[in-house]
């Protein structure tokens, strides 16, 4: 074990320490180089040895275990891990971009920029939650916004993963998270609810919108518990120009009870990308915190019974709040097929606790693909017609507005448009009509169904209307794949 | 040298063979058989015959309470277990009985301790049913890692704070690094009679090279095993347990 302070120029397992980037209570961060590893890297060294608490070592173990199980561009890839018994360290790629901490220092930011940043962070959280993990220490310092606009989450020292024992479960009092951002249920000792990250995201968005922290920087446990009942000042009380939709999103993330928040990071990302679809409630227009009497009631409620309510474990959460995308061929209305599609959609939403149904009408366009939000611009060439048909199709489901959004997409290749929409909005299921025998003339739709089925990022439900008469002789021939229709 | 940890086979030859095949395919080069080869199931003699052969080939073999009860009738057994024990006793040869009687209760290999029930007073066949029982076991073992059976449900106990054990319900097929300067006690589950309402056989695989433990659930022809129990004239309830994993 190297003794004394590790400094620039020292070598550990072939890694040569460069500039020290950061030194904090939990450890230090150096740039490193290694002949066998290309690209800029950093080494993270937890504080260890006599006089140091066990916390930084537990954080090190937690981070190395969880990072090794995560995949995707939203998290640092684990390059090397030092032996816990000798020199514990983590080597990670150096992630270029701007720390969200720096960006937050410029707050208040314009709503569009907050929506863009927030959606990028929500994307990262959704990918994380889908891998059965929860960050539990989301704050501006732990987010790097890369030049391509994607958010990378760093520092998984407090994270939780459903497939590994939680080494920090019993360290609650010391390691709840970062005081301004930590969720009410974390304050109460729960570490297995992914919706905790959505609360922290709400604090981050609040900070970006107002330059203030909703619960300040509490220094005591009692101060930390304030958030179990205190109604924060709405962001509009700080900055009057915060649009109602943004305040709605922020305050919904900040709900004390996890069940009252968004149930999935994908839903937050969706709302931030479609501000005109945000269902406004009383939260949107608030300009002051709840009255003293109402606050007293909240306080009383929090004292009697767990304010944060029942949690939901990561693996339970995965299927609870799906984004369901239905592609409706409004260009070729067909009562039998459309009814079959509706029945399939009804069955799918019946088993979902909290879902968002995204209905997509794809118009075969003849110019460059344009994806436009319906209703945002009056459309001279039949856009509105498609929207009306889509609305007519979905009407029998009688869905409340917050569950539903309708989109007319113009694209040369429908499959490409459906896939792109599904990817960007984290769809969990795509429902679309299978080509019928009678639709052979409409080659694009047949190949759209097969292209979507083969390339979708999620499950695809192809709905076939029951045949009204016997199938023709050639019904079982497998049609040749039309290559030009592949996006 | 990945080592497969099989316990509570309970005369279920189908489940035993399925787990051995699975472990071989998963790269296991060694077997640790943590006891309870007889009782409940229809094939005590065939299972013990195979265990003797595996021991000759280098497998680690420990004694379980049912194996112990063959020679020394146990008062704590319920009617169902006692009936199955009578059946096992009648099936086993003298050589097989002597083999079972001579098995050790606990074994140590490097940083690992193996036991059927608990490393603490193993002859009392205590269940690892809570944090204090898990800690007593870890402390008596004296090793960083302890692998046991006896409780027919898979569970991983880990030292969450010095001297305090926490339970973790493992996810099948997901490797767990058993790292750090802390005690780990793994209950590997039951091959022949799982009791978590899932009939699939349970075992675990430890890979010392990376220090990771993977719990597995292996589907096998449990209906055939149950049918054999009926055909042997054993209680229908015993067949039902194998069919439903109860």
Describe the 3D structure.
- The complex is a heterodimer of chains A (487) and B (246).
- Chain A is 33% helix and 17% strand.
- Chain A has 487 residues and is of the alpha+beta class.
- In chain A, helix 13 (335-350) links the parallel strand 12 (323-328) and strand 13.
- Chain A is globular, with a radius of gyration of 25 Å.
- The N and C termini of chain A lie far apart (55 Å).
- Chain B has a single domain, classed as Metallo-dependent phosphatases (Purple Acid Phosphatase, chain A, domain 2, 4-Layer Sandwich).
- In chain B, the strands form 2 sheets. In chain B, strands 3-2-1-11-12-9 form a 6-stranded mixed beta sheet. Chain B has a 6-stranded mixed beta sheet with strand order 4-5-6-10-7-8, with helices on one face.
- In chain B, helix 1 (13-25) links the parallel strand 1 (3-6) and strand 2 (30-33).
- Chain B starts with a strand and ends with a helix.
- Classes of the chains: A alpha+beta (487), B alpha/beta (246).
- The A-B interface holds A 57, 61, 65, 84-85, 162-167, 169-171 and B 156, 158, 160-161, 164, 166, 168, 171, 174, 176-177, 179-181.
Give the % helix of chain B: 25-40%
Strand fraction of chain A: 15-25%
Radius of gyration of chain A: 25 Å
CATH superfamily of chain B: Metallo-dependent phosphatases
Oligomer: heterodimer
What's the alpha carbon Rg of chain B, rounded to whole Å?
A: 17 Å
Encode the helix/strand succession of chain B as letters. EHEHEHHHEEHEEEEEEEHH
């Amino acid at each position: 074990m190297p003794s004394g302070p590790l400094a620039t120029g020292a070598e550990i397992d072939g890694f040569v320490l460069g500039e020290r980037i950061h030194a904090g209570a939990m450890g230090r961060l150096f740039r490193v180089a290694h002949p066998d590893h290309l690209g800029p890297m950093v080494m993270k060294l937890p504080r260890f040895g006599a006089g140091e608490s066990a916390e930084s070592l537990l954080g090190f173990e937690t981070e190395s275990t969880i990072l090794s199980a995560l995949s995707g561009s939203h998290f640092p890839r684990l390059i090397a891990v030092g032996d816990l018994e000798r020199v514990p360290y983590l080597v990670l790629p150096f992630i270029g971009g701007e720390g969200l901490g720096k960006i937050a220092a410029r707050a208040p930011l314009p709503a569009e920029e907050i929506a863009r940043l927030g959606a990028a962070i929500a994307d990262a959280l959704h990918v994380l939650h889908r891998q059965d993990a929860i960050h539990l220490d989301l704050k501006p310092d732990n987010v790097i916004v890369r030049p391509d606009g994607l958010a990378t989450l760093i520092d998984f020292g407090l994270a939780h993963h459903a497939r590994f024992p939680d080494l920090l479960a019993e360290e609650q009092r010391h390691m709840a998270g970062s005081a301004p951002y930590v969720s009410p249920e974390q304050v109460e000792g729960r570490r297995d609810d992914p919706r905790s990250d959505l609360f922290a995201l709400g604090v981050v968005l609040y900070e970006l919108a107002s330059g203030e922290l909703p619960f300040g920087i509490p220094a005591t446990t009692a101060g930390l518990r304030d958030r179990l009942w205190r109604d924060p000042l709405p962001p509009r009380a700080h900055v009057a120009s915060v649009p109602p939709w943004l305040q709605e999103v922020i305050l919904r993330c900040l709900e004390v009870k996890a069940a009252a928040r968004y149930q999935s990071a994908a839903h937050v990302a969706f709302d931030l990308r479609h501000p005109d679809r945000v269902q406004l409630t009383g939260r949107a227009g608030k300009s002051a915190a709840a009255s003293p009497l109402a606050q007293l009631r909240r306080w009383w409620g929090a004292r009697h019974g767990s304010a944060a309510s029942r949690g939901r474990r990561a693996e339970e959460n995965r299927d609870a709040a799906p984004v369901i995308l239905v592609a409706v061929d409004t260009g070729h209305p067909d009562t039998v097929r459309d009814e079959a599609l509706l029945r399939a959609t009804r069955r799918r939403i019946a088993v979902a606790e909290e879902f968002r149904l995204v209905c997509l009408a794809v118009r075969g366009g003849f110019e460059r693909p344009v994806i436009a939000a319906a209703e945002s611009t009056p459309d001279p060439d039949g856009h509105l017609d498609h929207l009306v048909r889509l609305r007519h199709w979905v009407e029998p489901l009688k869905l409340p507005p917050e569950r539903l959004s309708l989109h007319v997409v113009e694209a040369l290749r429908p499959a490409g448009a459906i896939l792109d929409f599904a990817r960007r909005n984290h769809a969990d299921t795509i429902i679309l009509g299978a080509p019928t025998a009678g639709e052979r003339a409409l080659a694009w739709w047949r190949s759209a169904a097969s292209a979507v089925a083969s390339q979708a990022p999620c499950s695809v439900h192809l709905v076939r209307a029951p045949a009204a008469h016997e199938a023709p002789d050639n019904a079982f021939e497998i049609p040749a794949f039309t290559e030009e229709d592949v996006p | 040298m990945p080592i497969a940890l099989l316990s509570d086979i309970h005369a279920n030859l189908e489940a035993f063979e399925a787990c051995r095949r699975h472990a071989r395919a998963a790269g296991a080069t060694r077997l640790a058989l943590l006891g309870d080869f007889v009782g409940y199931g229809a094939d005590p003699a065939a299972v013990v015959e195979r265990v003797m052969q595996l021991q000759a080939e280098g497998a680690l073999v420990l004694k379980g309470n049912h194996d112990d009860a063959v020679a020394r009738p146990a008062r704590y057994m319920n009617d169902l277990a006692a009936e199955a024990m009578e059946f096992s006793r009648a099936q086993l040869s003298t050589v097989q009985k002597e083999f079972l009687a001579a098995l050790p209760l606990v074994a140590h290999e490097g940083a690992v301790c193996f036991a059927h029930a608990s490393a603490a007073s193993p002859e009392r066949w205590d269940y690892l049913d809570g944090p204090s029982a898990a800690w007593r076991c870890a402390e008596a073992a004296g090793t960083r890692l302890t692998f046991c059976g006896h409780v027919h449900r898979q569970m991983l106990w880990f030292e969450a704070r010095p001297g305090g054990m926490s339970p973790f319900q493992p996810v099948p097929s997901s490797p767990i690094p058993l790292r750090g300067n802390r005690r780990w006690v793994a209950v590997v589950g039951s091959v022949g009679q799982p009791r978590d309402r899932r009939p699939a056989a349970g075992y675990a695989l430890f890979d010392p090279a990376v220090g990771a433990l993977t719990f597995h659930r292996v589907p096998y022809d449990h209906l055939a095993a149950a049918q054999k129990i009926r055909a042997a004239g054993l209680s229908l309830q015993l067949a039902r347990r194998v069919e439903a994993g109860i």
